[in-house]
Design goal:
The chain is an all-alpha fold. Helices cover 80% and strands 0% of the residues.
C-alpha cells in the first residue's frame, strides 16, 4: 500500500506541474492572439515570444503552440511595419520547423494574414528577398509559393506564372514540388 501511495505521489508531483505548464502556454497563446486581434502588437509580440520560449517544440500541444506563435510573430512584425524582424521570424520558422509537416501551410497563412493588413506587397517582397538571398535553401520552395500566393491576391498573373515556372524548373525533382503546386 505504501509503495502505491509513493508512486501515486511521485506521479502527482511530476504530472501536475507539466499540466500547469501546458495550461500556461495555451493561456499565453490565447492572450497573444487576443492582443494581435486588438492590434496591440507590442504586447502580442511579447506574448508570442513567451510561448515560443516556454513551449517545447518537441512535444504535442506545446510544440503546436510554439509553432503557431512563431508563425504569428511574423505577422505581428508585418502588421507593425517591422520587416527586418519579420524576415528574422520567418527564417526562424523555416529553420526551427524545417521538417514540420505544416510548415508550407504556415508560409501560406502568413501571406493570407497579410491581405487584411494591406501588406501583401511587403510580404511578397520579403519572401522574394529571402529566396534571392538564399536561393539554394531547402525551404526556398515554400517561400516561392508565398510569393506566388501574394501575387495571386495582387492580381499579378504574369508574376504568378513566372514563379510557378521557376518552381517547376528548379524543384521539379523535389517531392515537395507537387504539394507546392497543388
Amino acid at each position: 500500500m505504501r509503495t502505491i501511495s509513493i508512486v501515486w505521489l511521485i506521479g502527482l508531483v511530476v504530472l501536475v506541474p507539466a499540466r500547469w505548464a501546458l495550461a500556461d502556454v495555451a493561456a499565453d497563446l490565447t492572450q497573444a492572439e487576443d492582443q494581435y486581434k486588438a492590434r496591440q502588437y507590442t504586447q502580442a509580440e511579447q506574448s508570442y515570444l513567451t510561448v515560443m520560449q516556454q513551449g517545447d517544440r518537441n512535444t504535442g500541444e506545446e510544440g503546436e503552440a510554439a509553432f503557431a506563435a512563431c508563425k504569428k510573430l511574423a505577422l505581428v512584425y508585418i502588421a507593425s511595419d517591422r520587416l527586418p524582424e519579420a524576415r528574422e521570424a520567418v527564417q526562424q520558422l523555416l529553420s526551427r520547423y524545417a521538417q514540420y509537416e505544416f510548415l508550407p501551410h504556415a508560409i501560406h497563412e502568413i501571406g493570407e494574414g497579410a491581405e487584411p493588413l494591406l501588406k501583401l506587397p511587403q510580404v511578397r517582397q520579403l519572401f522574394h528577398d529571402m529566396v534571392t538571398a538564399q536561393p539554394g535553401d531547402s525551404q526556398a520552395i515554400w517561400l516561392k509559393m508565398g510569393v506566388a500566393i501574394a501575387s495571386v491576391h495582387l492580381a499579378e498573373d504574369k508574376a504568378v506564372d513566372v514563379v510557378l515556372q521557376d518552381i517547376i524548373t528548379q524543384h521539379g525533382g523535389d517531392d515537395r514540388a507537387s504539394e507546392a503546386l497543388n
